Each structure stands twice: as C-alpha cells, then as structure tokens.
Amino acid sequence: MPEFDFDFFVIGAGSGGVRASRVAAAHGARVAIAEDRDVGGTCVIRGCVPKKLFAYASHFADDFDDAAGYGWTVGHRRFDWAALLAAKDREIARLNGIYKQLLARAGVELIASRATVVDPYTVSVGGRRLSARHILVATGGKPYRPPIPGAGLGITSDEAFHLPRFPRRIVIEGGGYVAVEFAGIFHGLGAEVVLAYRGEPLLRGLDMDVRRHLSDEMIKRGVDVRFNCEIVSVARGADTPLVARFASGAELGCDEVMFATGRTPNTAGLGLERLGVALDANGGVIVDHLSRSSIASIHAVGDVTGRQALTPVAIKDGGKLAVTLFAGKPAAVDHEAIPTAVFGHPPVATVGLTEEEARGRYPDVRVYRTSFTPLKHTLSGRSERSMMKLVVDAATDRVLGAHMVGSDAPEIIQGVAIAVKLGATKAQFDATVGIHPTAAEEFVTMT
What we know:
Strand content: 15-25%
Distance between the termini: 64 Å
Structural class: alpha/beta
Number of helices: 13
Low-confidence stretches: none
C-alpha cells in the first residue's frame, strides 16, 4: 500500500468541496483543499448570496409604492448603487472569512493556489506535487459567453456584481434562472430592461403554467420581454456605450449587454481529459450515484458534474461522498423531488414533477390550479397575481409536484417539499388545516 501525503485532496473550495473536506476531516482523514480564488465558491462569492442581496434591494421600490395604499406617505427616494456594492462586498468578505475559519477548525489545510490532476493519485499545486488516496474535483461552473462578434464587450453574472456604474439601460440575453433574476433586479432598481430570449415562454424545463404566468407577470411589470429573439453581435455605439444587434436586424443602444445564456463546468486545464476521466458533452465530469468518476480514485460533486447545479445538492453530495470514503458507509443522495426557486419579480418555486413530466410517466394525472390576487394587493392596488398548482397521480392520490409563482413562493415551497418528498397524498393535503389568511393555505384548499 503506497504512502500518501493526504487521504483526501479537494480541488475547489466552493460549497460542495468545503462540506466534503470538513466531513472527511471529522472522520479522521488528512485533508487538503486548493482554491485560487476566494473561499465559498459561486454561491457565496458570485452567485446565490450576492444575487439574493441584490434581489432584496430591488424589492424596496415595490414596498415604497405599496405603502401608499396603507396610509403611509413616503418622501423622496434615491437609490445609491455604490452603497449597495459596498454593503454587499462587506458581507461577502465576512462569509469568506467564516469559510476559512471553518476549514481551519476542522483541521483542513487550505492551499491558496490552482491545482491540476497529474495522475489518479497526484495533484500539482503551488509548484509542488502532492499525493492523495482520493481526489475530489469540485471546481464548479462558469458563465457561458456566446461566440458572437463583440461578446467580450458584454458582461455575465460574474461582472454584474461589480459594475462601477449602474446601467440605466441594459439588454439581457437568456430565459433561464439567471436571466429572469437579473431582469427583475435591474428593473426593480430603476433600469430599463430588455430581456431577449430565443425561445418562448421563459424558464424552459419548468411547468408550462409556471412559465406562462411568470412571463405574463414580468411583462405586466414593465420588463420588455422579447421572445424568439437572439443577439448576433455587440458593438460600441456612437450615442450609447453599446449597441446590441439582433437576428431580426434590429439594433438597440444600451449601457450594458448581459449574457445569461447558461453555465459550463470548470474542467478545462485540470488534466482530466488527459487521464481519461469521462466527461459529458458540456465538459462535466460523469459520476455514478456515489460521485465516483470513471477513475476510481477521482470523484466529483457540484456544478462540475452533470447533476443539478444547486448549492444544497453540492453540499449533500459532498457530505455523502466523505461518509462513503471515510466512514465506511456507502451513502448516496436521492436526487428526486429536489425543490428549487427562481428569485425573480415575482419569485417562482417548485418541487417534484411538472404536469408535462407527470403525464409522460403516469397514465392518469389530476391537476389542481388556482390564480388569485394576494390579500396585500387588495389595498396596495398592485395588479400582480399569484399562481399555485398541484400535480397528482390519480391512481394513488400521491402529490407528484407542487408549483408556485408569487410572493414568498420559495419560503412556502420549502415546507411543501417535505410533504412531496414523503409521498403525501392530495387527501392528506386536504386534511391539513390552513393558516388563514395566508397565500400558503391555498395548497391545502385547492379543489
């Protein structure tokens, strides 16, 4: 048996890598983790956390407007982009420090350098070669920038958190989570937003009723949503900083062009292909249910794999992998019925099967759907409507999916997800007493 420098070497200190390293160390493994950027990964540094902070900021415009219906007089308002950036940076720095402390307390050695894989048991990092019994690739993903003329003039979600000036006019290309969320953020903060999506409606892959309702609500709010529309080039403008040119031939001047056209796994230059580690068409590491790659000693979790690109999934997969390797208890995550949310304006949350998926798997499906004006807006005067939906297997009465568009959807669906995960029936939903008056009670009163 060869002697190794470490039992476990983790490449990438994002959510999945940090959890895996800490759990492994707790089980007595000698662990090192390499990261050439801030500790915390996409979610903490340039994703979920700063995006949610920006989303909070963008909702205050609605709050100020809605207050009038409740007797409040709100005076002069002014949004300070620089102040928001500074506050966000302070919080991200704090979280980065906490993550470093967690690793140190766990006894994990943090190496602030880029690591590559040399062979199944060796990594190259910081000018050194280190051996490890097991190697974990947890390098996450990065925004995709389309190969069109002038693409380098545009920004992605990474740069959106650090813009020196607030864009008064912005064109966002994409129709997924990131595009929808940033369209809501910039629009809520006062920008003119054009959202160009090559398909129709928004949020491909989600339930069609959700997609249509969200698209309608965003248009109603004033976002200029353009379906079947694609940017073919970006150039510097004479009268505006940038000009976006569309496939139709139309041109639009703006301050920024943002590409929110998907993400790709961070596997380039890691040495995986040279070793023969199997990758999918997007460059993601192909893994089995225990997060093992095609080479037994090399593993992968998080956005670098082809599984759900969600932080809680990466965390669970990382923890289960460490238990499998160092506690002698093979453990896998059940990737069915994983709840997720889109923090748009309004927000979307969902768990389980869409109606389309359910009809493809079950011979008889019942659908319960409701759309209503939230109580808050009976006085605010806002025309926003919420939508809720349950998808049920008629044969067993089991709830296969729950979907919501509207205020507090992510907070509501998190609790509903427990019931869906446990296989609750529609009758059990109906037997549950609702909390009145709330939007959430609709999930237990739908007929």
